[in-house]
Amino acid sequence: MIDLFDFASSERDALAVGATPRKLTRRVDVSWGDNHVLVGGGAPVVVQSMTNTDTANAIETAIQVKELALAGSEMVRITVNTPAAAQEVAAIREQLDRMNVDVPLVGDFHYNGHKLLTDYPECAQALSKYRINPGNMGGGKRRDDNFAQMIEVACKHNKPVRIGVNWGSLDHELMAKMMDQNAQRSRPWEAQAVMREALVVSAISNAQRAEQLGLPADAIILSCKVSHVQDLITVYQDLSARCDYPLHLGLTEAGMGSKGIVASTAALSVLLQQGIGDTIRISLTPEPGGDRRQEVVVAQEILQTMGLRAFTPMVVACPGCGRTSSTVFQELANDIQGFLREQMPLWRHEYPGVETMNVAVMGCVVNGPGESRHADIGISLPGTGETPAAPVYVDGERVITLKGDTIAQEFQQIVLDYVQKRYAP
Q1: Taking a C-beta distance cutoff of 8 angstroms, is the pair 279, 248 a contact?
Q2: CA atoms within 13 A on the CB side of 394
Q3: Dist CA 43 CA 46 (whole Å)
Q4: Rounded to whole angstroms, what are the CA distances from 414 to 361, 371, 394, 408?
Q5: Whole-angstrom Cα distance, residue 83 to residue 157?
Q6: Which of the four, 166, 251, 332, 398, has the lowest number of CB atoms within 10 Å?
Q7: Per-10-residue mean pLDDT for the chain, 425 residues long?
């Protein structure tokens, strides 16, 4: 008989370790009022998102920021690209404050950020962080002066900065110089490898220059965004090994629908599992008229399914098969997941710990009772040919069997009663 526990010690240890402990980086405080969002330094991985409204429309932008914040975005980035947009940033901040939404706002600047931050000091003060792209600041001395001007504003207003390098807007002079140097090597690198190295060099060298200009090291976050999964993994592994600044993760253009979700999950999960990354954004292209909050949900679910954070109760549901010709379990699982997520803005404050709750909605007798017992609360709906009854399990014990046309409503009420009883302070 085989001893199932007769593994080599190293194999046993490897199975028990799970994710690599996160690399300890500097800690950056991105705050507004009493809300301090800590990035790096062992703090939980932060979820952020970005609006797609015209920032010059203050009301529309404030409403979307509020929606993203209520969905769980802990920072929200807004485009600041024109004088009209810069003029409205303070108004957006004031509107959010009136709505008691204290989420930090991040200003996204390209090309003219140095001028906008200087010409509109109310904008510079109302933002909690600046995102700047060194590749979009011109060339030569003009680039250096524009970069210095933005860092000086950040120092003046005591604001942290994310220096975000993108492969679509990489510093052309740096890239040309590194290509020339590569051509002199006895064994030149492939062009793609030079590009990846240029991204890392650009990010770190600009961070070092920001420090020389007076920006504290603990006010700097770096990112090196690309669109391809393997390139992103390689770049961030190298960047993480060569600096201790907090790192922002994300594919720069993940794509639409399932492609964008899969690509982002594949790339970020590998890095997070290796302990790399302090804040994430999922850059999904929304469907026409789609919900911008989806990128927040995906980011949260990546972190929660990896066991790194908990945001909302998770629903376990079977995929369905020939035993489950009824769609009742699918509809109930969808309704319960939506119900739980809708409640979280309120439950987050009233029922601490509820975000760790597990709910099972199963479709037949094969795994239904077992999965329901393992969950905090679960229901096993009847499959094809099974008795039309749905046993409900609470904390592993069968407590009631539901029947009839009101199973969904009754189960939702059981979930609500359970939350109020178990998680009330």
Answers
A1: yes
A2: 12
A3: 8
A4: 13, 17, 9, 10
A5: 19
A6: 398
A7: 48 50 92 97 97 97 97 97 98 98 97 97 98 90 94 98 91 90 94 94 97 98 94 97 97 85 96 97 88 95 95 90 80 90 92 95 89 94 86 95 91 95 94
Q: Do the beta carbons of residue 278 and residue 248 sit within 8 Å? A: yes
DSSP 247: B
Length of the chain: 425
If we measure between CA atoms, which residue out of 76, 139, 85, 75 comes closest to residue 113?
85
**What does the block give as tokens for 96?**
């959010």
Are 261 and 284 a contacting pair, CB within 8 Å?
A: yes
* DSSP-based three-state secondary structure for 28: strand
**pTM given for the model:** 0.91
Element (H, E) at 334: helix 328-350
CA distance 211 to 86: 26
Q: How far apart are CA 134 and CA 397, in angstroms?
A: 59
